[in-house]
Every structure is written in C-alpha cells, then in structure tokens.
Design a protein that fits this description.
This protein has 224 residues and is of the alpha/beta class. The chain has 2 domains: 148 residues, P-loop containing nucleotide triphosphate hydrolases (Rossmann fold); 64 residues, no CATH class. It is built from 6 helices and 10 strands, in the order βββαββαβαααβαβββ. The strands form 2 sheets. A 6-stranded mixed sheet has the order 6-7-8-3-9-10, sandwiched between helices. Strands 2-1-4-5 form a 4-stranded antiparallel sheet. α3 packs across α4, α3 packs parallel to α5 and α5 runs parallel beside α6. The longest helix has 17 residues. The model has no long low-confidence stretch (mean pLDDT 88).
Length: 224
C-alpha cells in the first residue's frame, strides 16, 4: 500500500478578483518505504504540497490518501488526530520547544497522542536520540545545542509516533554542505531502517542523491 497518494490535487487562493493557483492538478504516489525529493524554486508550490499531504492545508479539489486513508474526507478534529498520530513533520525552522530538553521535546509528542505510557515513551525517546548521536545531549535545551543537533532532535521528534509518512521541509537550508550531508544520511538511515516513507522538500539539488526519486515542481505543476 502506498504511503501517500495525491490525485489531481489543486489548491487555489483568491486575491481580489484574481485566482492564485498554488498547486495545479498534482498527482503523485509515494511507496511505503520510498524517499521522494521534491525540488523546485522558491514559490513553486513545494511547501503547499507538503502541507496538503500532512493535513495542514485542505485542497481546493482532488484527493489525498495517506496509508490507505482518504484524509480529504476528514473533519477538523479527525485531521488533528491524524497529524498528531500518523504523520511526522520536520519543519525548516525546526520549531523545538525552547524550555524543554531534547528528551522532553520528543516526549511531548507522546503526551499529545497519549499512545503509550510515560516510561515506555521515555525509553523510546532515549533510544531515538541515542541512534541520532545525541545520547549525551538528552538533558540539553535547544539553546545549548548546535544547529545540526537541533535538526537531529527534530528528526527524532518526527519519528517518535512511528508514522507511515514523514514530511521534511528544507532540512539542510541552515547547514553547511558537510553537516547537510550528515543530516541527509541520518534521515535516509532512519527512514529506511523503519520502512517508513518520506517526502523531502529541497532547493539543493545536491541533496537529491539521497532520495530514491526526485520530482520537480514549477508554478504548482509536478513533472517527473
């Protein structure tokens, strides 16, 4: 079963009398353990596609199926549950909670989802951070971590709820080339090791070598 299926998805906005097309009849299938790099210039619709795939935005038309579930039929409450329990996000700005430690930033996902008890969640958080090379940094606040370390915490947080799909927005934009490559290697290792799927938005074509497949997007239109 594919992790993600977009069928003829369109997203438009109205500005005065004008219709702005952010996504134009996008159709895309991502396999259950596939990493797809979504490449395009600024304003091409990359983040819109990612947001629709993760239930953060609703399409103007078309359907979005994640792990066999058509989320375009979901109510706002169902979408909230879906985002919390079935998809992992890694945002460009990382968005860690500044007053929580690395460990607590992962455990907060469990607190919202209430999917496992505190002890089990703590063990999972510590295991993930250890795998990500942060075993000695679990009690550090985000301000005490480097940019690369914060990015790794964000990856761990996205994996915490064992999602079928991880959506990653510009994971290397704030990192130098070497650190960017290390982060991409970590993402690939974690995603493939768990047989999870990922869509990675990037403007850096060098990072596409880490994906199974690249898809270009221009002016809201996808091209193979």
């Amino acid at each position: 079963m594919p992790a993600l299926e977009l069928h003829d998805v369109r997203k438009t906005y109205t500005s005065g009398d004008d219709e702005i097309v952010a996504l134009d009849h996008a159709t895309l299938t991502v396999g259950d353990d596939e990493i797809v790099a979504l490449v395009g210039p600024s304003g091409s619709g990359k983040t819109t596609l990612l947001s629709i795939s993760g239930g953060l935005l609703t399409p103007s038309q078309g359907s979005v199926v994640v792990d066999g579930k058509d989320i375009t039929t979901y109510t706002a409450k169902q979408l909230t549950t879906f985002r919390r329990e079935e998809v992992g996000f890694v945002f460009q700005a990382v968005n860690l909670v500044p007053f929580l430690t690395a460990r607590e930033n992962l455990m907060v996902v469990n607190d919202f989802a209430s999917s496992r008890n505190h002890k089990v969640a703590k063990q999972r958080a510590e295991k993930l951070l250890d795998e990500l090379g942060l075993g000695g940094r679990m009690d550090n606040l985000p301000s005490q971590l480097s940019g690369g370390e914060r990015q790794r915490v964000a990856i761990g947080r996205a994996l915490m709820n064992e999602p079928a799909l991880i959506l990653i927005d510009e994971p290397t934009s704030a990192l130098d080339t070497k650190l960017g490559e290390q982060v991409m290697e970590l993402i690939v290792g974690e995603v493939k090791g768990r047989k999870t799927a990922a869509v990675i938005v990037t403007h850096d074509v060098r990072m596409t070598t880490y994906a199974d497949r690249s898809v270009a997007i221009t002016d809201g239109r996808l091209a193979a």
